[in-house]
Amino acid sequence: MVQTIVILGGAVGGLHIAHALLKKNNKDIKVILVTKNSHFYWNLASVRAIVPNVIPDSEIFRPLSAALSRYPPESYELVIGTATSSDFSSKTVTVSLSSDAEPSSTRTLTYDHLVLATGARYADASTPWKADSSYEAVLSALHNTQSLASKAQHIVVAGAGATGIEVAGELGYEWGKTKEIVLLSAGSSLLGGDMVGPAAANELKKLNVSIKYDSRVVGSAKLDSGKTEIRLENGETIATDLYLATTGMVPNSEYVDARHLDADKKTVLVDEYLRVANVEGNNVWAVGDVVSKPRAGFMITQKQAASVAKNLELALAGKAPVVAKGPPVDILGCSVGRGRGAGRMNNFKLPSFGVWLAKGRTLGVQMVPGYIDGSVA
C-alpha cells in the first residue's frame, strides 16, 4: 500500500527529506512537497548577493521541478502554495494555492505522515534573507536591494546577530571606503554576548563599519526626502539612504494548533525524535527554523533533516524511531566580507582565515547542486 508523506517547505530541510525518501522508497510512497517558492533558494548567500554582480541568480536559485524530475512522476507531486491550517486528528492540511493555480484557490491534502519544514521569516518582508514568498517576489526583493545598496551613500543594518554581521561585512568589504555603513546592536555586544562577538566587531572595524551599541530600533518611517528615519529606544533618530533590518525572525507556524507550539516563541514543540508533541499517532514531524531547537542554524537543520528522514523510513517499516542527532560540536561562524571571518568551535576561538576558508569563501554555494541532484541526502 502506497503511503503519502506531505512535506511543508521546500528549503534545506524539506528538500533534503524529500530526496532521502524518494531515493529509497519511491515505489512505496508518494511525497507531496508544498512550498511557497517554486525555486530552491540558497539564502545563506543572500548576504553577499545584495552586492551587484558578485553572485549570479542562477547559482542561488534553482527550480524545484528540476530537483524532483529524476524520480518516477507517480511518486511525487510539487504543490506551489502556503499551508493555512492543519488538523492532525483527521490527518489533513489545507493549502492556499498560488494565484495562477487552477481550478481552485485552496486544496486539502490528506497524509499518512506530515513534515513541518516551513522555516521562519523576518519581520521586514522586503528583505531577501529568507524565501518566505514566491520566487518572483524573492528575486524582486534581492534585485531591489542590490539597486538601493548601489545608490545609497549611508546604509544602516539593524540587528547584530549572525545575519546582521554578515550583511554589514559584505557592504563594508564592497563599499566601506566610499559609503558610511552602520551596524546597530540592541545590546552592549554583538551576537548577544557570544564569545565570537568581539572578534566579529574587530573584523567589521577593519572594513570601516561603524557599530552603535545599545541601539534598539523601535520604528522607522519614510521621509519626504526619500531617506528613512530610524527611531531608537533611547530616543535618538537616524536618517539613512537605506535601512536593512535583520531582526524579528518569526516561525512560520500559524497553520499549527496552539497546543503544539511554544506559548512565547510560537515554535513547534518536538520530542527527542523530532515528532511534534501532543499528536495522536506520532505521525507529524518538524525540522529547522520552525523548531529552532537548540537554535536556528543551517548545520542544525541539516542534521535534523537526516534524522527525520531516517525516522520516517523506520516508521514506514513499522519500526521504532531513534533519537535525533545534532551536530557533533557547536560551531558558530560568521563571514565578515569576502576575505575574513569570526567564529568558534564549542568554546575554542577559530582563526579568521579558517572561518573564511570553511564558510566565507563561497558561503556554501557549491552545495546547491547537491540539493538539486539529491546527493545531499
From TrEMBL:
GO terms for cellular component: cytoplasm. It comes from the Eukaryota. GO terms for molecular function: electron-transferring-flavoprotein dehydrogenase activity; flavin adenine dinucleotide binding. Keywords: FAD, Flavoprotein, Oxidoreductase. The keyword Oxidoreductase applies. SUPFAM superfamilies: FAD/NAD(P)-binding domain. The keyword Zinc does not apply. Residues 4-295 form the FAD/NAD(P)-binding domain. Belongs to the FAD-dependent oxidoreductase family. This is Apoptosis-inducing factor B. It comes from Cladorrhinum samala. The lineage of its organism: Eukaryota, Fungi, Dikarya, Ascomycota, Pezizomycotina.
